[in-house]
Prior knowledge:
- 38% of the residues lie in helices and 22% in strands.
- By secondary structure, the chain is of the alpha/beta class.
- The protein has a single domain, classed as LigB-like (Protocatechuate 4,5-dioxygenase, Chain B, 3-Layer(aba) Sandwich).
Amino acid sequence: xxxxxxxxxxxxxxxxxxxxxxxxxxxxxxxxxxxxxxxxxxxxxxxxxxxxxxxxxxxxxxxxxxxxxxxxxxxxxxxxxxxxxxxxxxxxxxxxxxxxxxxxxxxxxxxxxxxxxxxxxxxxxxxxxxxxxxxxxxxxxxxxxxxxxxxxxxxxxxxxxxxxxxxxxxxxxxxxxxxxxxxxxxxxxxxxxxxxxxxxxxxxxxxxxxxxxxxxxxxxxxxxxxxxxxxx
Length: 232
């Protein structure tokens, strides 16, 4: 059963740059992980967009393509394999866990951009059934079209979509995640909707206390950090 979830963005600069504009994002992410830790899950599952949909994804990734020769691994791997093959989303999640000192059991799953909406929900349900107490770290970005250089009409649509996403996270209602507009999500280039459908599937019809700790677009990309904790 899903007992808690954290939703975090995955800008590679968060891990490879000391740009102060991301300080608040990092702090919010680590605070969200503290909330997950306090929930005492049996297992934490990191879920993010990838090239394929997989119940069990890889454990090692690299951020070398983003300017720093850094290899990251999900906690629990004392001798990770030499070939990193995690997608960026889960790689940043692994980096957050490493820097945040996560010491419990961790695994990962990925969802492809062309995954069916129903398949995303079913993946979430399977993940929630892995243990009595499951937590999710969902890596999901909003729209990358929030910059001032984006044409006004398209930027307005991006802001509208990200506002709907933030509202769904604040509400703690899985159905609101399922109701996010697929066509608008595709139009504004948001890569996170499918991963959030996995969260909705894992949450099922549970009731969750919810909080959004960060909502901004420091690089013209919508970044949200939120926490869901099962109510009662």
